[in-house]
């Protein structure tokens, strides 16, 4: 658990540092006529790879330039509006982008490139399934019998779907289930706490560029706690099971580490993400009673261990598979 | 706005991670402290106190209603060196050494904490806390609950003759005393080379100048009488040369009497003043102290005067009574001479005189001694007049016990003419009695004489598999056999029953005094202590706590004390987890 706690910010640091230097610049198509497209070999020679773009820190600019120089590829990969032959060129960035999954296939040998923010495609609109680890800092005395520290680490799985997308913004809805706990001893008596959370989590995203987005996620749901103590005077295991409500408000970012640059098709993508915020759980009372199979004396009275309030800052890292 | 949200999102992520990093502090150490191996408890009138030394606290167990138990944790000083209940079992006195050696200003000083045990709807609470300069050794509490004396020790330099005289909170105090309200006086008794060995508090007695309560301090060679209200007023009686007339002899016992016949229903006599007698080790001579108004002619201040007075407005006279053998116990009793009550000092003699075991009866005024046969080698005596007498009396009744004799005896102290009259009524018992326990009752007892069992006494012998209930009124001894061996007897504070148990056995019993009916109970864990406490807020309702301490935990089985039934119990575990 401590390892996870320390790993989390390290992962976060990796995620945070590189985008800061990248300074993504949104694609801004102009109304000027596009230059004549170069021939395919010329375009291939002129267009830097995605990796080169990343290293140059000019993904947006280069993409725009390349698209301008190679309208056929731009139409294929980035879905950047261009002056269609015999048609009116788009004049503003306010136009709604519609992902055209029936776009013509790329010619053989053409390079895939990350799309612009107004043509994110499956980078943005997809199903997702994620697993991760949530660490909460619960500074509550009710947690003391069950843990040597204030960190509550939970395994987290979730799934969801993008519902709406408008240029770089999108809204999705997900469901998250988290389970984890702590174990310790209270003055020699072994204790355990199992915490489960099921929440419905609307998510609003803003893509900084195709392979990275930030998001905010309020979550509402239920909290289930099961606390137990092996009370040695009675020889019985005493338990307290409670339901409560839970609410989270977190924000974070995700970065695509695997997957095709093009968002034209719905393809599997792997993301890593991190988010942090505040988790709120309703206060529950720990009235520890013997379970049905207890071997202890008859009529064991409940052991009152006070209230448990699972609230506090929370941090989550996850790996997300989108499609 | 969207960009702003993005930035905020990043910041939230970073902040969340940072908080998780820096915020994962460890829990308080109290959760890692193991239970005390030998969990000690003291039964009070309305609660049971359980020591939790690792956490410097006392956990008070109370019963708010039927089969319910609640805990109240009270913080006391660190490093408890001694604790005991007051004579009325209403309060608890806890001496703590504090942090030693003290290295920081915040390190706790030695202290005396006075805890009210609550009961009848009142929760236990700390009544007062007295801060001491040096780690305390022991405490002696006034039977009337007004004072306590604390002795200190363990320092680089010790003054063994220094006593800390503590003025205790009033018995009816319902609020904790503020620090400024606590009174503690350091008193160094006058010493002639010895140090205090034992302390006795007297009730209020009328002296020639005024009424006083005395603190009687026995040292190896002296007896000091200190006025509790004016500690600077002191009388010291030197018992070595020339009083004893031989080598130094230690005082073993001090007996006192106010010399007033009002306890016999007669009016007080203003010309009578208290008498104090001192039993000496291996001495057949008993020094008497009598008191006279100042100017009464007592020769004091001479070089060989055994009396040193300081600030008192009366004179002290010492007389010596020779009883021909070393006494094992002394006390004052009323006898009857020519149909008038006369006070005598009775001394049970260890060795037989002329082949008979006798008691010496000393007239403290005429300094004349009569001898009475007592029939056996009794070594102890206890005044039982109030409990054993029927109707008005002009003389006392004493209970004789102890020694090797398997019997007890009632001794009626009367006279015919000027000769001591003896009436010895022996009652054989199957044990050599080593302790006689009185049945007392506190404020939680049900009202009415029907519920007063003061006429019963518990007789116990060393290592015996039985004990006896002695009925002083009926003069009967009822044996109570305990096949499991020598039992521990815990009396209920309301004086209605006794609880009998053996440590670690799951079986224990109640003995109802009303009809001497024992009820055996078997609970599901070994019992380490049994305490009877007031339940709820009405007198008469009682609960009994059977404590189960196994070295790592403490559990309690709660029963109805008035009608105990093992099918109607409640078990409480994790007692020392309460209040954390």
Oligomer: heterodimer
Strand content of chain A: over 45%
Query: Which class best fits the helix and strand makeup of chain B?
Result: mainly beta
Give the domain tally of chain A: 2
State the shape of chain B.
globular
The tally of strands of chain B reads 43
Strand % of chain B is: over 45%
CATH topology of the largest domain in chain A: Porin
Overall number of strands of chain A: 10
Residues in helix, % of chain B: under 10%
Per CATH, which architecture of the largest domain in chain A? Beta Barrel
- Could you tell me the mean pLDDT of chain B? 86
Structural class of chain A: alpha+beta
Number of helices of chain B: 2
Task: Please tally the helical runs of chain A, counting DSSP H or I stretches of 4 or more residues.
Answer: 5
Order of helices and strands of chain A: HHHHHEEEEEEEEEE
N- and C-termini, Cα separation of chain B: 48 Å
Q: What is the CATH first-level class name of the domain at 45-188 in chain B?
A: Mainly Beta
Key features of this structure:
heterodimer, A: 323 residues, alpha+beta, Porin, 2 domains, 8-stranded antiparallel beta barrel, 10 strands, disordered N terminus, B: 580 residues, mainly beta, Methylamine Dehydrogenase, Chain H, 5-stranded antiparallel beta sheet, 43 strands
3D structure, described in words:
- The complex is a heterodimer of chains A (323) and B (580).
- With 323 residues, chain A is an alpha+beta fold.
- Chain A folds into 2 domains: 27-104 and 111-116, no CATH class; 122-322, Beta Barrel (Porin), CATH 2.40.160.
- Chain A has helices at residues 2-22, 40-46, 50-56, 59-69, 71-78; strands spanning 127-137, 151-166, 169-186, 189-209, 212-231, 236-258, 269-281, 284-290, 303-308, 312-322.
- An 8-stranded antiparallel beta barrel of chain A has the order 1-2-3-4-5-6-7-10.
- In chain A, β2 and β3 form a beta hairpin.
- Chain A is elongated, with a radius of gyration of 26 Å.
- The relative contact order of chain A is 0.16.
- Chain B is globular, with a radius of gyration of 28 Å.
- In chain B, the strands form 11 sheets. Chain B has a 5-stranded antiparallel beta sheet, with no helix packed on it.
- The model of chain B has no long low-confidence stretch (mean pLDDT 86).
- By secondary structure, chain B is mainly β.
- Chain B has a domain at 45-188: Methylamine Dehydrogenase, Chain H (7 Propeller), CATH 2.130.10.
- Helices cover 4% and strands 45% of the residues of chain B.
- In chain B, β7 and β8 form a beta hairpin.
- Chains A and B meet through α1, β1, β3, β4 and β5 of A and α1, β42 and β43 of B.
């Amino acid at each position: 658990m401590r390892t996870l706690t320390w790993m989390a910010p390290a992962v976060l640091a990796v995620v945070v540092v590189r985008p800061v230097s990248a300074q993504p610049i949104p694609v801004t198509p102009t109304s000027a006529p596009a230059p004549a497209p170069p021939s395919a070999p010329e375009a291939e020679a002129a267009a830097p790879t995605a990796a080169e773009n990343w290293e140059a820190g000019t993904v947006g600019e280069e993409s725009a330039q390349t698209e301008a120089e190679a309208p056929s590829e731009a139409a294929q990969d980035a879905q950047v509006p261009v002056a269609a032959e015999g048609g009116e060129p788009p004049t503003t960035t306010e136009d709604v982008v519609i992902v055209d999954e029936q776009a013509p296939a790329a010619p053989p040998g053409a390079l895939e490139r990350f799309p612009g923010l107004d043509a994110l495609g499956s980078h943005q609109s997809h199903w997702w399934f994620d697993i991760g680890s949530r660490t909460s800092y619960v500074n509550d005395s009710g947690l003391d019998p069950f843990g040597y520290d204030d960190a509550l680490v939970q395994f987290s799985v979730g799934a969801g779907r993008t519902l709406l997308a408008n240029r770089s913004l999108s809204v999705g809805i997900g469901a998250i289930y988290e389970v984890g706990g702590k174990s310790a001893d209270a003055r020699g008596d072994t204790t355990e706490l199992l915490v489960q959370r099921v929440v419905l989590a609307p998510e609003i995203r803003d893509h900084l560029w195709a392979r990275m987005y930030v998001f905010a996620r309020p979550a509402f749901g239920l909290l289930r706690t099961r606390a137990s103590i092996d009370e040695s005077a009675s020889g019985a295991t005493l338990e307290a099971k409670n339901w409560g409500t839970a609410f989270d408000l977190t924000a974070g970012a995700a970065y695509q580490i695997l997957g095709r640059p093009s968002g034209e098709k719905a393809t599997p993508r792997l993301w890593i993400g991190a988010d942090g915020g505040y988790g709120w759980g309703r206060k529950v009372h720990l009235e520890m009673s013997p379970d049905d199979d207890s071997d202890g004396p008859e009529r064991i009275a409940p052991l009152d261990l006070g209230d448990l309030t699972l609230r506090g800052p929370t941090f989550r890292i996850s790996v997300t598979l989108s499609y | 706005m969207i960009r702003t949200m993005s930035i905020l999102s990043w910041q939230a992520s970073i902040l969340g991670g940072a908080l998780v990093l820096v915020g994962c502090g460890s829990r308080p150490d109290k959760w890692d402290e193991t239970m005390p191996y030998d969990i000690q408890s003291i039964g009070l009138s309305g609660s049971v106190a359980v020591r939790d030394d690792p956490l410097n606290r006392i956990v008070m167990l109370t019963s708010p209603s039927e089969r319910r138990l609640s805990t109240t944790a009270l913080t006391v000083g660190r490093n408890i060196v001694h604790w005991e209940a007051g004579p009325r079992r209403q309060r608890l006195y806890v001496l703590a050494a504090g942090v030693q050696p003290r290295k920081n200003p915040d390190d706790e000083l030695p202290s005396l904490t006075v805890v009210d045990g609550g009961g009848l709807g009142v929760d236990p609470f700390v009544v007062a806390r007295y801060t001491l300069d040096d780690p305390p050794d022991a405490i002696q509490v006034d039977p009337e609950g007004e004072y306590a004396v604390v002795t200190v020790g363990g320092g680089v330099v010790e003054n063994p003759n220094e006593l800390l005289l503590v003025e205790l909170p009033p018995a009816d105090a319902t609020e904790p005393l503020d620090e400024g309200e606590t009174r503690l006086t350091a008193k160094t008794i006058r010493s002639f080379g010895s140090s205090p060995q034992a302390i006795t508090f007297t009730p209020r007695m009328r002296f020639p100048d005024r009424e006083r309560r005395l603190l009687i301090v026995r040292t190896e060679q002296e007896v000091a009488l200190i006025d509790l209200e004016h500690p600077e007023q002191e009388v010291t009686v030197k018992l070595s040369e020339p009083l004893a007339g031989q080598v130094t002899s230690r005082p073993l016992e001090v007996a006192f009497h106010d010399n007033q016949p009002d306890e016999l229903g007669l009016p007080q006599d203003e010309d009578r003043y208290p008498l104090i007698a001192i039993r000496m080790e291996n001495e057949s001579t008993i020094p008497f102290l009598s008191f006279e108004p100042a100017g009464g002619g007592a020769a004091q201040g001479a070089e060989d005067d055994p009396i040193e007075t300081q600030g008192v407005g009366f004179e002290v006279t010492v007389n010596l009574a020779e009883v021909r053998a070393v006494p094992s116990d002394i006390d004052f009793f009323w006898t009857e001479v020519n149909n008038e009550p006369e006070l005598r000092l009775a001394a049970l003699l260890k060795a037989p005189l002329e082949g008979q075991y006798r008691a010496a009866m000393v007239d403290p005024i005429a300094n004349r001694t009569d001898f009475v046969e007592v029939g056996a080698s009794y070594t102890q005596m206890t005044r039982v007049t109030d409990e054993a007498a029927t109707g008005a009396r002009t003389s006392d009744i004493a209970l004789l016990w102890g020694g090797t004799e398997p019997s007890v005896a009632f001794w009626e102290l009367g006279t015919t003419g000027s000769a001591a009259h003896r009436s010895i009524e022996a009652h054989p018992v199957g044990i050599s009695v080593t302790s006689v326990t009185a049945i007392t009752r506190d404020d939680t007892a049900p009202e009415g004489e029907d519920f007063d069992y003061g006429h019963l006494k518990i007789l116990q012998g060393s290592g015996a598999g039985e004990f006896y209930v002695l009925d002083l009124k009926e003069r009967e001894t009822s044996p109570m056999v305990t096949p499991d061996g020598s039992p521990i007897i815990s009396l209920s504070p309301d004086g209605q029953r006794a609880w009998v148990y053996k440590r670690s056995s799951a079986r224990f019993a109640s003995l109802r005094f009303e009809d001497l009916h024992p009820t055996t109970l078997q609970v599901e864990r070994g019992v380490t202590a049994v305490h009877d406490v007031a339940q709820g807020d009405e007198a008469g309702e009682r609960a009994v706590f059977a404590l189960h301490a196994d070295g790592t935990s403490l559990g309690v089985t709660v029963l109805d004390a008035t009608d105990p039934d093992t099918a109607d119990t409640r078990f409480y575990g994790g007692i020392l987890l309460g209040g954390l």
